[in-house]
Amino acid sequence: MTPGRLELDYIAAPHRPQWIGVSLLIVALVVAGDTVLRHRGARHELAALDAAQGLLNPDRKPQRTVPKERLDEEAKAVDAVVRQLTVPWAQMIEAVETASTSDVVLLQMQPEAQQRTLHMTAEAKSREAMLKYVRRLGETRALSGVYLVSHQVQTDNPARPIQFSVQAGFRSVQ
Amino acid sequence: MSRLFSDRLLIALAPDSLVLLRLKGPRVVEKHKIACDPAFGAEPWQAAVATLARLIEPIRDAKVEVTVVLSNHFARYALVPKSEALANATEETAFVRYCFSKIHGERSKEWDVRLSRASSGLVRIASAVDSKLIEAIRSSFPTTAKAKLVSVQPFLMSAFNQWRSLLSGKGARAWILLVESQRACLAHFEDNRWTAVRNTRGSFEGPEQWAELLDRERQRDGGAGAGTPEGVYVHAPQSSKASFAETRGWTFSKLTLAPVEGLAPADADPFAMALCAR
Fold first, then answer.
1. Where does B3-73+130-156+259-267 sit in CATH, by number?
2. What predicted TM-score, i.e. pTM, was given to this entire model?
3. Most exposed of A87, A167, B222, B278 (fewest Cβ within 10 Å)?
4. Gap between the Cα atoms of B177 and B232, Å rounded
5. A14 Cβ under 8 Å from any chain B Cβ
């Protein structure tokens, strides 16, 4: 063991024994360590509480920003679904039934929700029956802008029927 | 080195010289040795203190911490027995004064005394310095100056603290001999306690004179330890050319200081006393 310092200073106070400083350092380290452990425990406890309440998750990654283009696409998709859901099926069917005659057979009916139009394909026994059917569709309340898109005589059929397409717009009927 | 840290001034005062070293961190950046006339003034320290005052004047406003080492010419030492009857510091000081007065008589009343901390031994070492010397040094550093006097210590204190690690170990014992011009301070340290201290005027230039002094001291101590080989640690920078050969059964070991940045080893001897307080 090294002998202690010789303290005969006429100005400076004698050096304090080193053990006082060492003891203080040890106490400070113990307190600091205890504080760190308490802090860690408190954080864990808080995380557990948050997880239990489903309010917060400290480990959750921050939400990523959604690009505007994607938002627009999603909005369009939502609109499309909404429009599809708002197609007035009942009124359209009623209008088509009202216009039907014994000389015309409806083959296909396809609404376009986005354009709010209705495409129909039908077959008529004669040209007159076809025109009368188109006129009768135009007179219904549910349809508007009814016009004949195309027509074609089925020559391979001995009765020579006429297959035709009609496009009409549909109104929102309250 | 940050500007927040002060430079250090190490000053050694002796009757015939003043030595000053300025350190920036561990590096010596300035060194001076100024000869003084010991015959100047009524007291042997007056020449050195007057030189100190002149030297310090221009750097009072520099941010420096000043340590002054006092030559053993300016200090007296005594072993003071530990007494359980002494209740406080005042009584201890009075007792130390009494011990010095028994050795030096009435003039010791004008001395400022210090007593070392209690060690494991029953004897403590005390020092005495002329109160006027301490006051004169203090007055060179007014409280308004930026240069701060942080320590005034007798050479034995500086030297012992510098080399005390050599005396470590249970049962370690050795003599310490500090040689200055016309002065030798001899102390014996054994098993973590002081057993003798002598501060003697005279010429002690080499091993022959050292051995003579040691023999005298051993005789004074009743011849205890005669025939037992004991080491003698010698610090004699002014006798650096002397042979440290074994003389009359005494083995001398030279006490040297570690090299200092900014000071060539060949130039270090005149500054040794100041460097002991590093």
1. 3.30.420.40
2. 0.65
3. B222
4. 7
5. yes
